[in-house]
Design goal:
The protein is mainly β. Helices cover about 10% and strands about 45% of the residues. A hairpin with a 3-residue loop joins strand 14 and strand 15. Its main location: membrane.
Length: about 230
């Protein structure tokens, strides 16, 4: 049987899909109820596309799910309540988990002069943060061999043919409406190593070794003749 036209669902008293603002570490309770029902109705809950297991006493006419230990990764997750016998009757709640910028990356990098370097500052933030690079406490003055690339997930500084003057501490600054966070990246540029040809050294060692061996053999023969 189709659901009666008057049967609608509500979550926490709201009859339209909505966004629930929350924060990491909090616990949220979502209560779905059938409005205007003339008979007992069974309810289903979904987290994204996965069905939520409900206890037998938590299914008929009203049903609650508890979202505990909310994390940053739960941002954008959708919870949907559906009428079991007509699943086109549904209502959804999207979690909007707000949190300050979380920065990560490789703190220390060593590079040889003349090589290419990438400093990658990974960021997670909601709302999205404004990002910039500082160097040794001041705004980074971009030179020809510097290139900055930014997405919603990282801020990257590429340095081609790194110079000794590129030595220093690079700070990744993330500024969001909630908080400003900083992460330092230390770049150490070493002298270009003088390349020593390996093959001639090996060849010379072999010659010296063979000379010694043949010298010993010749000397032994001479002693034996005596």
């Amino acid at each position: 049987l189709p659901a009666r036209p008057g049967s609608v669902l509500s979550v926490n008293g709201k009859t339209e899909n909505y966004i629930l603002d929350t924060e990491p570490g909090l616990q949220e309770s979502l209560k779905c109820a059938v409005e205007n029902h003339t008979r007992d109705e069974e309810l289903l809950w979904y987290r994204e596309d996965g069905r939520v297991d409900l206890k037998s006493g938590n299914k008929i006419n009203s049903s609650s799910v508890c979202v505990s230990g909310i994390r940053e990764d739960d941002n954008g997750i959708t919870f949907t309540c559906k009428l079991q016998r007509n699943q086109s009757v549904s209502i959804s709640v999207v979690l909007n988990v707000t949190f300050p910028p979380l920065l990560s990356g490789n703190d220390f990098q060593t590079a040889k002069e003349g090589s290419d370097v990438k400093l990658v500052c990974n960021v997670k933030s909601n709302p999205q943060a404004q990002m910039m690079w500082y160097r040794n406490g001041g705004i980074l003055n971009l030179e020809n061999h510097h290139r900055i690339q930014q997405t919603s997930e990282y801020l990257q500084l590429s340095i081609t043919k790194v110079k000794k003057s590129d030595n220093g501490t690079y700070s990744c600054i993330a500024n969001s409406l909630i908080e400003t966070k900083t992460k330092d990246f230390h770049l150490i540029v070493k002298d270009k190593a003088s390349t020593v040809p390996i093959e001639p050294i090996i060849a010379a060692c072999v010659v010296v070794f063979l000379t010694l061996v043949f010298g010993l053999i010749a000397r032994r023969k001479k002693i034996m003749k005596v």
